[in-house]
Please model this.
Amino acid sequence: MERLLVLARHGQSEWNLKNLFTGWRDPDLTERGIDEARAAGRALKRAGYGFDIAFTSELVRAQRTCALMLEEMGLADLETVRSQALNERDYGDLAGLNKDDARAQWGEEQVHLWRRSYDVRPPGGESLKDTAARVLPYYIETILPRVMAGQRVLVAAHGNSLRSLVMVLDHLGADTIAGLEIKTGVPLVYRLAADTTVASKEILARDGEAGR
Model:
């Protein structure tokens, strides 16, 4: 039984390129983001991976990344489930603001806390802890049972929704989460043991990149 779980952050979005806080706003992928998604799909296919079901968020940048990856793998018709539970964290009042402008207004340290800490909320938005409070129940109730039944599962989502999941899978403490960065379009390949813990993890390199 494979118990395969692959996590992928969406490719670069138009607002990533413009250095804007995005959250639940819904920009599309850039040309680079499209290339990243396709490269991730090719890398998975080249490594011999396949999927039985995919999960993604209600936001177009994750949905399109998922679709492009599956298209490159010859799985364009694969069942794909969308859920708001996998959305990016809500940046509240920061959404749409340039990150450099935010640092100028509130200071580097405060903006870093809003972006990277575990339990500090931006004004009107969610902390990573809040994001985990919706991501983890969905994972436990909906995604994990598929994996444990032997299905090969792809999750295409967002930096913070995936950070909250990786934090649990990799047993990372709240004091170390600030340093966790999930790259756009780089698949994280997990195989789970019979007790649902991680048996192995691989960061799968895109075309032309070195893995680790």
Observations:
- The first helix runs from residue 14 to 17.
- The domain at 10-148 is CATH 3.40.50.1240 (Rossmann fold).
